[in-house]
Structures are given as structure tokens and as C-alpha cells.
Design goal:
single chain; rod-shaped; alpha+beta; 4-stranded mixed beta sheet
Length: 153
């Protein structure tokens, strides 16, 4: 009786092992491919720069960076794009990044300064804005419009 019971349990164990093996192989058929990378999005900042009196400021350098380099030449050496405000004081900065917070630096006009030391900085925060239109690691794009008023000297 004990030998019959052991045989029966052995048979049941083999059948269960075969079933589990088959289930394991069939579950692997619909496996997603492995992706490498980090989630990232395209962030666009449109804005206008005004002086202390509320007049538009043209020709002012605008750069978005993760940290503060010593001078504008350091921005350029790192490959940071410096854009300049147009005649209406407007600018557009586009940055593709995995971070949704940046610091925007305002640089003096090229013709009046050779040092390019930032004259002001603004924190840009996209945490409350969800990027749209993405797929996979690319989360899409988000945009915001800001108005910057410089402080008087």
C-alpha cells in the first residue's frame, strides 16, 4: 500500500512538472523586447524678457543648463545652445532631457559684454505638465510660456 501511494505521488509529481514546464515555455512567447535607456521628453520654453520698466529687451542671451558654468564661453564649450531674444524680446528654447526641471540663465547682450556673466537666472519647472505624444522611453513633448522681468540696477 505504501509503495502504491509513492508511485501515485511520483506520477502526479511528473505530470505536474510537465504541466508547469509547458506553461513556463508558453508564457515566454509574448515577452516584451528589452529596452535600454531612460525616459526623456522634449521640453519647449517660449518666453518674453522685459526690463525693470516693462519694455522688451532684444539681443539678450538665453541658455538653459543643468548647472552653472563660469561664463558664457563655458556654456558654448559644453555645447549648450545660446539663443538671443528677438526685437520683440521673445525667445524659444528647446531641450530634450530626462529631467523636468532646469535653470535658465540670461546673458548680457554680445556687443556690450565680453565676460558673458549671467545677469539673472530663472528656474523652469515642468513637473505639473505632462508630456504628450510619446511612445516607449520617449514620453513626448511639453511646452510652457514664461515672462521674465529683469530687476533694476
Amino acid at each position: 500500500m505504501i509503495i502504491g501511494r509513492k508511485r501515485r505521488l511520483g506520477f502526479i509529481n511528473r505530470v505536474l512538472s510537465m504541466i508547469l514546464t509547458l506553461l513556463g515555455f508558453t508564457s515566454c512567447e509574448s515577452e516584451q523586447p528589452t529596452e535600454y535607456g531612460v525616459p526623456h521628453a522634449r521640453y519647449e520654453v517660449k518666453g518674453t524678457v522685459l526690463d525693470a520698466e516693462g519694455s522688451v529687451v532684444s539681443g539678450l542671451g538665453v541658455v538653459v543648463a543643468d548647472d552653472y558654468p563660469v561664463s558664457a564661453s563655458a556654456f558654448e564649450a559644453r555645447g549648450e545652445e545660446i539663443v538671443y531674444t528677438d526685437v520683440n524680446g521673445e525667445f524659444i528654447v528647446i531641450r530634450e532631457s530626462s529631467f523636468n526641471r532646469f535653470r535658465m540663465y540670461l546673458l548680457p547682450k554680445k556687443e556690450i559684454s565680453s565676460t558673458y556673466e549671467p545677469i539673472d537666472s530663472v528656474d523652469i519647472d515642468f513637473r505639473g505638465i505632462s508630456p504628450e505624444g510619446g511612445k516607449g522611453w520617449y514620453k513626448g513633448s511639453a511646452s510652457q510660456h514664461i515672462q521674465i522681468q529683469l530687476k533694476g540696477n
